[in-house]
Design a protein that fits this description.
Layout (H helix, E strand, L loop, with lengths): L15 E6 L4 E3 L2 E4 L1 H4 L2 H9 L3 E5 L16 H11 L3 E4 L5 H7 L5 E4 L6 H4 L3 H8 L4 E5 L9 H5 L6 E3 L1 H15 L5 E5 L8 H10 L2 E4 L1 H10 L27 E2 L3 E6 L9 E4 L7 E6 L1 H13 L2 E5 L12 H11 L4 E5 L1 H9 L8 E2 L4 H7 L5 H7 L1
Parallel strand pairs: 1-4, 1-7, 4-6, 5-6, 7-8, 9-10, 9-15, 10-11, 15-16, 16-17
Antiparallel strand pairs: 2-3, 12-13, 12-14
Length: 388
């Protein structure tokens, strides 16, 4: 897939660059707790600074639904970026303000705009909102692959108003994910975890034709067990979606499921002692928190055989840190392999980042929903806008 890359743009000194980034990070008490997503944009930021460009950063945080929410302000992110870069950053509280434009349009410092989702026009892909943003830039660069499945003004409409390019990280995402889709070295293993099997159904169908083996774990596996009439206790599952799930599909011999699990008492998920049970011996008051040791060993055996591994979604209930163990141990095992390994999904990447294993993988994707839609073969609006 050919996209206009910022590395090949004709940039002049003082070119004003509207840089759309993915800074949708965890903020608590005004502090950024995990800046992994922010750091993925640094290569493009540094490149633009070296070219003498004037950078204007566009981003969002959370779902404020078109209104100002103080806890979702980007001011903590602006301060954090200033700390990372060691240079001045100016915060623009209202990018649609005529006065702000008059006062700061010619500033040489980095401008950091307030949360775009504070304005209803962002999520509505408003022509007027996109036009107001476009006056701040000579060119547009999309470095937010993870948001490019959304038809929002800063992703789609803005990209069609001024010359547009993809950022360095965005280009890598498309290249690595495309490689896994088009020409994977075999055996090809796909590992799917997380909560919702219903949303990943098209992906499972697609990879049953392309992959040599698929592992389904996490709450996705719980739903399949429930579909088969197995006891899953009080575990997380899509009990109301089993009518849309084809039972025969999940009996395909290419698919592997956990054979044991770490369970706790449902009424004391955070505090009760975990025990290991076979997945065919779960009791009515059990809550499945994580995969068990035999499952981990079985999954690792499959991984050692593979030459290409694509992993999206945690293997356990990562809302509770105590159930991250299976995901962390599997990531550690994969980090020792020499195969081509791609991992994505916010919760999975969070565990890998906290474990210090990001650099041990061939590629760690910032995309969650965007990664899945790309792998399903869907056209991402953000990519279509850049190609038009």
């Amino acid at each position: 897939m050919k996209l206009r890359d910022v590395l090949h743009a004709h940039l002049k000194k003082n070119t004003r660059v509207l840089l759309r980034v993915d800074f949708n990070v965890v903020v608590k008490n005004g502090r950024v707790l995990d800046d992994f997503r922010m750091r993925q944009s640094l290569a493009t930021i540094q490149f633009l600074l070296e070219k003498g460009c004037r950078i204007r950063i566009l981003a969002h945080l959370g779902r404020p639904e078109g209104r100002r929410v103080s806890t979702l302000s980007l001011r903590p992110l602006e301060r954090h970026l200033k700390h990372i870069l060691g240079r001045r950053v100016i915060f623009i509280s209202n990018p649609t303000s005529v006065r702000a434009y008059r006062d700061f349009n010619n500033a040489r410092d980095i401008l950091f705009f307030e949360n775009l989702r504070f304005w209803k026009g962002e999520e509505r892909d408003s022509p007027a909102f996109a036009k107001a943003l476009s006056r701040w830039g000579d060119i547009y660069v999309n470095e937010a692959f993870s948001d490019s499945h959304r038809t929002h003004a800063s992703i789609v409409r803005l990209a069609r108003l001024i010359p547009s390019y993809v950022g360095i990280r965005f280009s890598e995402e498309v290249r690595f994910l495309g490689r896994a889709l088009k020409n994977p070295r075999r055996p090809f293993l796909v590992v799917l975890g997380g909560a919702k099997v219903s949303t990943k159904l098209p992906l499972i169908r697609r990879f049953l034709d392309r992959a040599d083996r698929i592992i389904i774990a996490g709450a996705m596996a719980n739903t399949v067990f429930f579909l088969r009439g197995m006891e899953i206790g009080r575990s997380t599952a899509e009990r109301d979606k089993t009518h849309i799930l084809p039972k025969a599909l999940f009996s395909n011999p290419k698919i592997l499921y956990p054979v044991d699990a770490r369970v706790v008492r449902y009424r004391a998920i955070a505090s009760s002692a975990a025990r290991v049970r076979d997945t065919n011996a779960i009791q009515s008051q059990d809550f499945i928190g994580d995969i068990g040791p035999r499952s981990l060993e079985m999954f690792y055996r499959e991984a050692k055989r593979a030459r290409t591994i694509l992993w999206n979604g945690p293997l356990g209930y990562t809302d509770e840190r105590r159930f991250e163990g299976g995901t962390r141990e599997f990531a550690l095992a994969l980090s020792r392999l020499k195969s081509f390994r791609i991992v994505g999904g916010g919760e999975t990447v969070g565990v890998i980042n906290r474990s210090g294993l990001v650099k041990a993988f061939s590629h760690v994707s910032t995309g969650g929903g965007a990664m899945l839609e790309f792998l399903m073969g869907k056209k991402l609006p953000g990519i279509s806008a850049l190609k038009s």
